[in-house]
Amino acid sequence: MAELNAIPLFIEMTNEYLIVYDIIWALSFNQNIQQQIRSNLSFMFKLTVLAKECDNEQMCKMIQGILWNLEINHENRPTSKIKNEKTFDIMISYSHKEEVLCKQIYDELIKSGYRVWIDFDHMHGNVMDAMAQAIEQSHTIIICMSEQYQKSNYCRAEANYAYQKQRKIIPIIVEKHYKPDGWLLFLIGQLLYVDFNKYEFLRAMELLFKELKVANTSETHVVPVEPKEDTTVVVSTLSVSSPKKSASLILSQNIIEWTQTQVQDWLLGHNLVQMSRLLTNCDGRSLIYLSKYTKRCETQQILNLLQEDSLRRINESISLIELSCFQSLMDQQKRLFPWTDAN
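Structure tokens predicted for TIR domain-containing protein (343 residues):
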């Protein structure tokens, strides 16, 4: 990647141009670049010192953002002991360019009795920790999609953390003619969104309230899948409204022996509807190959390839939530019933 080769130059340029920190922050969402930054010990030391001593608020925000992506400040964040107790029903994640419309949405939500967290005061201090705390204390995150939101490193970090913490995400469009792409499209996957420019405001709010009710209702019918402590795979939730037995109990313990039909039963049994369509002709051995391939290759490359394949085969954008859930289930299946390598 060209960005990888440019990192040393960007690091050197930080001595003269503060804006370069924002460029490094944007690049640091890539795992390969994260590793390269971590390996530069002198720059890492510089970042940690500046995070404590800098008096330029914008510069502090960029440095905190870089360190956040490198998991320096949040990898060991304590989680609430009372998991189901939330201070807020909703957090609104937005770019301040769309503040007027977001304020209207906020007012309507408050009128309807929702407890809503939103930053109208342009947070100061350690904004990353404040953002994380707000997400952790909220049940549902409304993502206000716009061009400026997609360009903002802070908004990207906010949306990513909401996804990592498995919060209910409801995307809405707040800018005319805007269509999400890139990282934001991958994050929202196949989630339904409300377009506040397509409908009049009150009608759009009706649709938003409907989505909020769906999110609240589904909360009573889900169970989390617990990952291993050392895994970084984001886990979605699985519906348990169906009385069917878990696919892992009724199928052969060795995935390699699964037929195409059994693979479909397993995917649908875990509500991975899009993955079942995408993997129509796959047997158990194919699942193992796919699981291995997604781990061995660079994340962005995998997402690009799967996105192309999904659009070509089923004319749908790949759901990052289903993909993450699929990989988590494969890891869980291997822990429970270790399979023989499909070599």
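Residues 220-250 have pLDDT under 50 and may be disordered.
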